């Protein structure tokens, strides 16, 4: 299948590799990219020869978030009616074989959330993680307020979500967000090594292991994600969202009026 915003290949006939490919926008995640990602993941999941998948980006950016330019003028009615985010982002949660995020560069906002939707994160030493949505007058809208505290605990999650600061790869590993950190030039080798090792094991056991680990912390995740989404959508009714996103698009500092 021909894709516009992702590249798809296999390694050793066993590992499906998906590379996010919107370099000029630092892999900002628009709807089409997320639809393509979902299609590619589903195709690999259905392919008996594939035992594991890797999602990666460029050296500079895994993904710098949801596409701000695309959503800057959205209203509450637009995002609520179309179930913005959910509609195109949920496919990855239905994938039953393991998906590794190989992260270099920026993994911000929806980029960090996408990495957290994968089963584990291997980070290059130049990786930077963050949930900077607060700077845009909104909150994370693809599970960030739910998955980040589960990964790094409440204090660090609050710090990141409320200040919008980035954390580097070393801090992300120490906090439990990344499972390993490796030099940038070893990132794909390390991710492939892990993927090929997983492919050696019984596929049913691998799928059962993934399903079971997910049960350890998904109990109330659906409620949390739905709650978050409604608030995320509601913030499109505020002038601070319009101001925050317009300021980003027009490369100026936002002036929030708290309305
Ligand atoms: N959406 C759309 N375009 C983006 C983008 C995004 N999330 N992130 C970067 N870009 C674009 C920039 O507009 C710029 O485009 P032009 O060259 O046409 O001007 C290009 O990518 C390169 O970006 P910068 O010039 O800003 O590069 P930089 O190296 O100076 O800074 C950065 C890099 C710190 C990542 C900065 O681009 C940035 O802060 N990006 C936005 C990060 C962000 O706020 N993400 C959250 C988005 S909201 C969200 O994700 C909601 C949700 O929870 C689902």
TrEMBL record:
Enzyme Commission number(s) of this protein: 4.2.1.17
UniProt entry keywords in alphabetical sequence: Lyase
Pfam families: ECH_1
Iron-sulfur as UniProt keyword: no
Alphabetized GO MF terms: enoyl-CoA hydratase activity
Entry-linked InterPro entries: ClpP/crotonase-like_dom_sf, Enoyl-CoA_hyd/isom_CS, Enoyl-CoA_hydra/iso, Enoyl-CoA_hydra_C
Record-linked CDD domains: crotonase-like
Database matches in NCBIfam families: PRK05862.1
PANTHER family: ENOYL-COA HYDRATASE, MITOCHONDRIAL, ENOYL-COA HYDRATASE-RELATED
Membership in a protein family: Belongs to the enoyl-CoA hydratase/isomerase family.
Protein name: Enoyl-CoA hydratase
Species the sequence originates in: Ottowia thiooxydans
